[in-house]
Design goal:
The structure is a single chain. By secondary structure, the chain is of the alpha/beta class. It is built from 15 helices and 15 strands. Strands 6-9-10-11-12-13 form a six-stranded parallel sheet. Strand 14 and strand 15 form a beta hairpin. 35% of the residues are buried.
């Protein structure tokens, strides 16, 4: 029986946890006594408790996120009633790192790891099972990519990280709370590990780096590595890489490799969050000089990248009209017909007239420990007390208006982002024209007709749209 079980509840089966694998890989000689158990949030409770009880660990480590907080609490409550012999319970992860000490989930914990866990968890385990031992920095952290199974690589997202931390101080984000800034993993060993994953059959690489393009030379080197492997793989082993980039750091030296990625091989997550300069200043959001629009236009005009762009509703000082105007700006930038580019521009083979894109309208969350809470009184911010801590109303957005935006976001996801009716979309959303007000009315009507925005039959939805 393993002495240590590391477990978590993932949002989906295709989302394996890199965090658990890193914890195990850095346990030194205790690694052989550690087992990883992963569950999906929709699995029945008994399918989660059963394997943990059968393993009979001496120490159970659980990774807790905003999305699995409630499910993890339910798991711990059930386990507490069924243990024959209770193990030491250690909680870690982004959610518990910043929760207040009186949070209910801590009733079930013997220890809590706050912040990065490779060093702290290893030190705790050595203190419990043998003698002290720890790692000192990201350069000394043992990689965990060998712990991905062949099934993980071929059927799931493969999470990787070339750097850790964030250089910015957006008040809605927990990234700045560690105070450690950005630290980079040694580049050449990292690229060698990526090569091994490709050789083993990895298909989708999702980088966890919060701002992949912070170090332009390093980002360029990583992209060129994947371009070389794509050229080698050609049609035999196609794969896709996913980077999160800040929209205001796109110099020409970065754009050159971006142009070379063939269709289907590159996804870019570009966080816009707000186009309102006053709101951006309030929350210490970097950018706002207008470069974001030019970046989006470049990506649509000159690359095959699948662009995923975010906006946040409910930020302090931003009302419905401002959010809608920002949404329309984003839509117009991403849906515009590709324009003629300067002579001599190198394009990837088979550049399509219009690469896919996604807009994700999200709702502001007051994550534990974040500075966004300082606006609660001055801007009338009221949040749900339970995860995911979404804003319920502000002085600028009523509860009813936020409810409409949530409904808008759900129908936008199932109609536009998933695009099950491609022939209808040009009629519903003419490219280059404002869409927010019209789609808001459509989503209002769909909610009224169906009485819900989930579990809707595709045929019935098509009939309503037709």
């Amino acid at each position: 029986m393993p002495d240590i079980v590391l477990a978590t509840i993932n949002a989906k089966w295709i989302h394996p946890s890199l965090a658990l694998r890193l914890l195990k890989a850095n346990l030194g000689r205790l690694q052989a006594s550690c087992e990883i158990l992963e569950f999906a949030i929709r699995q029945p409770l008994g399918e989660k408790t059963g394997p943990i009880l059968a393993a009979r660990p001496r120490l159970l480590g659980l990774s807790v996120s905003i999305w699995n907080h409630k499910a993890t609490l339910e798991l711990l409550e059930s386990l507490s009633r069924e243990w024959e012999e209770k193990p030491i319970v250690v909680l870690g992860g982004p959610e518990v790192s910043w929760l207040p000490s009186g949070a209910e989930i801590f009733r079930y914990a013997d220890y809590v790891i706050r912040g990065e866990g490779e060093e702290s968890f290893r030190a705790l385990c050595y203190r419990i099972f043998c003698e002290p031992g720890a790692v000192s920095d990201v350069g000394a952290i043992a990689p965990a990519y060998h712990l991905y199974t062949d099934e993980d690589l071929k059927k799931k997202l493969v999470y990787v990280e070339a750097s850790r931390g964030c250089a910015y101080s957006c008040e809605f984000c927990q990234g700045p709370l560690s105070g450690k800034g950005v630290r980079e993993f040694p580049l050449e060993p990292f690229l060698a590990q990526m090569g091994t994953l490709i050789d083993r059959g990895a298909r989708t690489f999702k980088f966890l780096d919060r701002s992949f393009n912070l170090n332009i030379a390093r980002a360029k080197r990583i992209m060129e590595f994947f371009l070389e492997r794509l050229e080698t793989a050609k049609q035999e082993r196609p794969f896709c890489v996913h980077f999160e980039m800040v929209p205001f750091r796109f110099p020409e030296e970065l754009r050159k490799p971006l142009r070379r990625f063939p269709a289907g091989s590159l996804r870019l997550e570009v966080g816009i969050q707000t186009f309102n300069p006053q709101t951006a200043a309030l929350i210490n959001r970097a950018g706002g000089s207008g470069g974001e629009m030019e970046t989006l236009e470049f990506l649509r005009r000159e690359t095959c990248a699948i662009v995923h762009a975010d906006l946040i509703a409910g930020l302090p000082g931003e009302d419905l009209a401002s959010f809608g105007a920002g949404f329309d700006r984003l839509w117009q930038a991403l849906s515009a017909v590709r324009r003629q580019s300067p002579p001599g521009t190198e394009f990837p083979p088979g550049l399509p007239p219009s690469a896919p894109f996604e807009i994700q309208p999200g709702i502001l969350k007051c994550l534990p420990g974040t500075a966004i809470a300082r606006h609660n009184e001055t801007h009338g911010m009221r949040y749900a007390p339970q995860p995911p801590y979404e804003v319920m109303e502000t002085a600028s957005l009523s509860a009813a208006e936020l409810g409409r935006i949530k409904n808008f976001a759900r129908f936008w996801e199932i109609i536009v982002n998933r695009n099950p009716f491609p022939d209808m979309l040009p009629r519903l959303l003419p490219p280059g024209q404002p869409v927010f007000d019209n789609f808001m009315l459509l989503s209002d009507r769909l909610l009224e007709n169906f009485g819900r925005n989930w579990g809707i039959d595709r045929k019935e939805l098509g009939e309503q749209l037709g």
